[in-house]
Amino acid sequence: MVEALLASFQEQLEREHRQVEEKHKDIWHQLHRVHKSVVARLEAENATLRAQLDAARQSFHAQVEEVKAEPSCDSIVCDENRPPSGELTLTFAPDSEASDDSDLGTVFADWSTILGSPAVHLRLIADDQTSTMIVHKAVLQRSPYFQARLADHWHNAKEEKTGLLPLRLPPGCPVAAATVVIRYLYTDVEEKCSPQSAACFARSATAGSLRLGQASVAIGAAQLSQMLLLEDLAEELSRLAQSLLVSSDEAAALQERFVALPEPLTKVCEAVQLSPAVELRTEELALMLRGSAQAPTARPQAAAVLAAAGEGGGGQACREAVISALEAMPFKVPAAPEKGVDKVRINRGAFEWLWDLTEDYVLVSEPYSERTESGQTTSATSAGRSLLSFFTGLARAQELHSSSRCFNEVFDETCEPVRLAFGAYLQHLAIMQHCDELSQAFRLGAAKAVKSPAAHRSQTCTIHYPNMLHFGLWPASQKLLPRLLQTAPAARAVVLAGLLELPCEALAELVTDRLLEALGPDAADVCSTLAKEPAVLASWATRNRLLAMPLLAQRRLCASLAPSLGTLQRDIAQVVVQVLAGNLVTERAKHRTPDRRSDPSERLLWLLLAVIVLVVIGIVGLLRYFVQLSTHPTF
Fold first, then answer.
1. Which of 80, 79, 117, 121 is nearest to 95 (CA)?
2. Nearest of 485, 412, 397 to residue 477 by alpha carbon
3. Upper half-sphere CA count for residue 617 (Cβ side, 13 Å)
4. Which residue from 110, 215, 571, 575 has the fewest beta carbons nearer than 10 Å?
5. What does R_g of the chain's alpha carbons equal in angstroms?
6. Average pLDDT in the 142-153 region?
7. For 582-619, what is the HEC assignment?
8. Last residue of some domain: 69, 94, 118?
């Protein structure tokens, strides 16, 4: 049995070994075929390249023979004084006495005229290096500057002695820029100073020697062209330099290197220094904020973009974008009756993020600086979009239907951050003394409903619009109103005027003990308004409030409360009687000791306590008696 198994295993191993050998042979055959095909293709390509190289070599030799046949071309001379950068400038140069240049002008018929002109050793003097370039005189005379300088009456004995023609480059202009200009003068165009040739050369320079990041070379060439009176080339090179800028650091380096930049490039450099976010419009910023408010992960990025736009001079756009995003209410979560949610909720995270932006860009003490097209900065005024429109929309957002068949759109308790934000907005207006807007905002908070009731389209119910920002609905408003009165005199006058405009019922709801204390002497005017409705005054008055009033206001209130004396509480009635009887009440209620004997409930309490004490004494006496009886039975 074991031998049969071993035999079967051995057969299987031999079979697998044969398969591996066959695969190995197949792989080697495939590699051999690929190798042969690759070698054949490379040999064919090599032969093609050799043929092309031989053809090019023959063509070059033929051109050299043609050049040698020309009587005006003697040799190729190279610059013996290389610049520090190691560049080598080559140009065609004949003998100095090969031809006369008296008839040479700025336009040449062919290259033989150029090659037949004398060579000029042009000494280029830059800020950081000096170099010598050999240029044909006919080429230099294509520039109006060199036409005048190479004229006979401008000959300099020193220059003739040294054989060098010095050329001081503009400040900041590198030697490479001079190479660009000389190359332009060597271009084979019939009219060198035409705008068409300058534009053609600028485009060819972009694809040729100049690369991205070499804006300084283009600017230096533009300034040198301007010095050589090549205005069209200077203009084209200035435009070319704009497309060679790669970073804001390079733009800053250009401004430091050159004394003056071309006007178009100056605007470009200033724009590069600014953040691209400045170019975003208000609508685009607002859409970004609305979408980011609903996505917590996108909020830091949106805040960074908004900050970049604000730092770049777009403060007013940021301000309006934040207000516009608030007006869209991306933090509002609609009710879903089918999911058991019967009230509108506030996404606390989204609203608090938008309100933080509001505190940074809207509720600020200093106006933003706006950048004009001329580059100047002006202060942005407070005109334009205001937070008042946002809070007005919130005040009208609730809908309460009189019919139970209709769905009500009412906010739940999550709206508390919105109310606190409204309070912060009012305090900002009071501090900044924006009296007109503060007056409107205060009326908004004092009104129970901003929008009048309306009939439903089915005519079966009436829609009411309760104000969710009404001061009487949130406890924090009891501390807010006194703070508004104590902020600034102008704000105090606005708040006081708003209080006096309210109906008696609404005024009684807002006037608390803390507000009376903040009103001080102005409390008399508020009390005069309350005294117009005795029923409202009776429900509002308390002993502490009456005692806190000045004397005249106290007497006026007590006189208004006298007709309803029988319905008043006992402590309030006592104050009214004492004031009307001429007894000045000076003590506070908290320091006054009440008359306990006049209260029957208190007498009953004392009587019950005495009975309980007597019962306890009797029980103790009985216990002592039984203890003595048990210890002395004979007794």
1. 117
2. 485
3. 6
4. 110
5. 49
6. 76
7. CCCCCCCHHHCCCCCCCCHHHHHHHHHHHHHHHHHHHH
8. 69
- Mean pLDDT for 159-165 is 65
Q: Where are the alpha helices (DSSP H) in 258-375?
A: 263-273, 282-293, 299-311, 315-327, 348-361
Domain annotation covers residue 541: no
User: Averaged over 444-455, what is the pLDDT?
Assistant: 87
Q: What is the pLDDT of residue 578?
A: 84
Locus of tokens 């009436």:
462
Q: What pLDDT was estimated at residue 109?
A: 46
346 phi/psi in degrees, rounded to 5? -115, 125
Name the amino acid, one letter, at 606.
Answer: W
Q: Tens digits of per-residue pLDDT, 477-508?
A: 888 999 998 888 898 999 999 998 999 888 88
Summary mean pLDDT of the chain: 75
Asked if 543 and 528 count as a contact pair (C-beta separation under 8 A), the reply is: no
Tokens of residue 553, six digits: 């206001």
- The DSSP secondary-structure symbol of 83 reads -
The answer to whether position 92 is within a domain reads yes
pLDDT number for residue 165: 81
Distance, CA of 572 to chain centre = 59
Q: Which residues of 228-251 are buried (b: 16+ CB within 10 A; e: fewer)?
A: bebebbbbbbbbbbbebbeeeebb
The contacts found for 333-338 with CB under 8 angstroms, 24 or more apart, are 334/409, 335/407, 335/409, 337/407
Q: Is residue 29 helix, strand or coil? A: helix
pLDDT at residue 437, as a whole number: 92
Whether residue 590 is contained in a domain is answered as no
310 vs 332: CA distance, rounded Å = 27
Q: Which residue has the tokens 């990041």?
A: 213
The count of other CB atoms within 10 Å of the CB of residue 478 is 15
pLDDT tens for 212-225 read: 666 677 777 787 87
User: Which amino acid, residue 446?
Assistant: A
Better-predicted residue by pLDDT, 452 or 241: 452
Give one word for 615, left, alpha or beta, with left for phi > 0 and alpha for psi -120 to 50. alpha
Range of the domain at 138: 75-168
CA distances in angstroms from 104 to 108, 150, 538, listed in the order given: 8, 12, 114
CA distance 150 to 134: 15
Whether 144 and 224 map to the same domain: the answer is: no
- Determine, yes or no, domain membership for 408: no
Encoded tokens for 233: 């080339």
- Domain boundary (153, 168, 183) is at 168
